[in-house]
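Purpose: get a first structural picture of the assembly so the mutagenesis plan has something to point at.
Setup: two entries, given in the order below. No constraints added.
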Amino acid sequence: MSNNVRNIVIAGLGGQGVLKASDIVADVAFASGLDVKKSEIHGMSQRGGSVSSDVRFGSKVFSPMVPDGEADFLVVLDPTQIEVNRAALKPTGILIDPSILAGYKLKSEKSINVALLGALSRHLDFPESAWITAISGHLAPKLHAMNFAAFETGRNA
Amino acid sequence: MALAAHDAQLTLGTGYPGTPSTEILESLHSLGGRAQWSPNEKVALEVGIGVAFGGGRALVTMKHVGLNVAADPLFTVAYTGVRGALVIVSADDPGMASSQNEQDNRRYAIAAGIPMLEPGDSQEAYNFTLLAIELSERWNIPVLLRMTTRVCHSKTIVETPGYPVPPAPPAGYVRDVPARVMIPAYARPAHHKLRAKLAQIAAWNEREGPLAVVPGSDTLGVITSGVSFQYVREALPQASVLKLGLTYPLPLELMRTFAIAHTRTLVIEEGDPYLADSARAAGIPVEANAEIFRFGELNVARVRRMEAGDLTPEPKPVPGKPPELCHGCPHRTVFTALRDLGCIVSGDIGCYSLGVLPPFLAMDTLVCMGASIGVGLGLRHTLPVEEARRVVSVIGDSTFVHSGITGLVEMVYNPPPTGHLLLILDNGTTAMTGLQEHPGTGRTLDHASTGKFVFENVIRAMGIPDVHVVDPTRDPAAFTELVKTSLDSGRLSVIIARRNCLLAAGAIKQYEKCPEGSTHEQ
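Result (structure tokens, whole complex):
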């Protein structure tokens, strides 16, 4: 049953755009007609503390949280949060973190969440246009160009 | 919930912000519904009761501890009943992601005698909100919608019904004094009436209640509710499952039939053993969760352990980075001063509770909203004079309006011999829950300008001899000196430390420049 469910955990610090990134992934999966669930803990943790969000999609998803050790992808926006979340990743899972962007220059650190989604997108079977649509839907128009560029950077990194 | 409330043409949504319930009213407003913040949960519920007495549809939202604040009217509105619909949301926080306790508010349904629905995902949050309105109007009874963190803070796909929601009946007052005035002579028959309604609802729940049966193994059955159902389906795909929707009053006969049809029936539930105890009290043969699973949230791994009877220690998560006061937050100056003065700080709920963490370590108590003043006064009454003079109560602006005012009345009424100092940290917003408005900001939920509660005017009128309004960051040394003088004065003092929250400052400037909506007379 969980065989066809893809599990993604996105983690970082409050203010880095963890929740925004997970909303974008959830939208992309939703637009392709899959069952999608997304879960997060925020509240007190948004004051600069650790934040993480789980996105799961497939033909049928039950738990909104990714069970420990079952994440196919762990996307971490801040290097300090890698070890905190490593237990989420399954042995064959893929870690996507800011080191992927070494040698590339982002216009703004604020778009690191979208840049890492670019890197994630290469591993998932959704058309690039679906990602662009989801990003557009979650960001103000004046931020579109910068984030499309960040997404491309991550996708090509 | 907000979408359902909107689709049901809700008359009014009221509440007080509290994680994980805050987004319901904000979403309702953004969908075009009518929603407002109240000073606290008790007032929010009272307003909701009035709406429902008048024949309207009301949704009242709060976090689990908020229901403690609203408990007084809650128990009596069960007796009075309502004419329209009254739906009360309790958003429980098992695991305490951002709360001071993990109370299980299913106990309130039993104690107050109020039917309770437990949604387990976004679809059920939608469906059960509509159902709650329907049940409330059908039996003229308030209905409790009990949510948990994982239902509130998860997103799952929702299909809205293809049929129109029945229109709300027209509002209008129908005088019915014996039903609305709970003097003992009217309350006694009202209690009998309530029990009769609950018996009818229990029978309805047995016949056509919102429950689901997933057929499966004859040997393993699971009775569950809410989000636990999702974990059960993933962890134990072979099990037969009875998922309950209306969990008070319980469909005990259905539970009995289900339990005896399986060799082994587990009750899997998050929090207290409410379902298990109820089943076992009725002589239904079920296994309850082991005590260790009573703490924190459930998840797929824990449900696997429950089934296997595995009581070995659970893996401890790697600690994350704790939250902290923002850099540049005005509270930082205040807590630095209190730390350096060696104060005994009676604290309260809000961002400033982060003053308890390093580098400040400057908060000594935190009990519940508004408790800082009463607890500080108690300390002043009992400690030796030199220690008593170090006690200071600290509260935020939103929390002061919520339940600090009556504490201040106590301070005026029963002043300790050494006097007392109350610090109101006024950052112009309800910061912790995500920058909501409150009566002290003078703006409504949608940021339109309205009547403003002016702290210093009210406090002066209460007869406090020393009231100071200062910006602590402008001159930290002068602020420290003011605190020191006030502590030593032997008088009652209030210092309002006023500077806008960093995160809200830009938006507040905008709101003040172009007030939207109507401006009320002050």
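The longest helix of chain B spans residues 184-208.
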